[in-house]
Specification:
The protein is an alpha+beta fold. The chain has a single domain, classed as Cytidine Deaminase, domain 2 (3-Layer(aba) Sandwich). Helix content is 24%, strand content 22%. It contains 3 helices and 7 strands. Bound molecules: tetrahydrodeoxyuridine. The site of tetrahydrodeoxyuridine has 14 residues, from helix 2.
Length: 165
């Protein structure tokens, strides 16, 4: 008797919104991006010269910022997104993170394309979403376009979280 196998091709779709400039954002979102741009100036990035800023808005109305902190022992550094997120969660452990704006400056100034959080930051953002049961809106800043992403599932589909343990 031949065994019949079942095989199905599946697909996951991701969604994002693209806009041309900060002027198309609401006042609150534009302010958050402005904060991320401002704090990028304080990044410690002497090795990459890639200056990243992140600003998170909490559901208690607070804004917490962070930037990348590099180290001569390269892996000891941390990305802007996690610096901001961990500072927010450390200081306001009962407030969900609602929105995160991220921006980056390279040697030519504000990055032309929207900055993309690395895999480890995506995982940390997922943890915060699951912890507070609140999706995090991401505003990824760039000179010629800005991407707005409703929740980490659009950046980290097929993720590993607490329910997989
Ligand atoms: N970096 C961030 O801070 N966030 C990102 O989304 C991408 C990369 C930092 C890490 C390192 O300090 C530098 O940018 C170059 O990778």
């Amino acid at each position: 008797m031949d065994k019949t196998f079942f095989m199905e091709q599946k697909k996951i779709e991701i969604e994002y919104t693209e806009i041309d400039s900060i002027d198309e954002l609401s006042t609150t979102d534009a302010y958050l991006v402005a904060k991320a741009r401002e704090v990028a100036n304080n990044a410690w990035a002497p090795y990459s010269n890639f200056f990243v800023g992140a600003a998170v808005e909490l559901n208690n109305g607070k804004i917490v910022t962070g930037n990348n902190q590099e180290n001569a022992a390269y892996p000891s550094g941390l990305c802007a997104e996690r610096v901001a997120l961990f500072a927010a969660n450390a200081n306001y452990p009962n407030s969900a993170v609602k929105t995160m704006a991220v921006t980056a400056f390279n040697k030519n100034g504000l990055s032309e394309t929207p900055v993309k959080p690395c895999g480890a930051c995506r995982q940390a953002i997922l943890e915060s979403e699951l912890r507070f049961e609140t999706p995090i809106r991401l505003i990824l800043d760039g000179k010629s376009k800005i991407h707005i992403i409703d929740g980490i599932k659009n950046l980290l589909p097929f993720s590993f979280g607490k329910d997989d343990l």
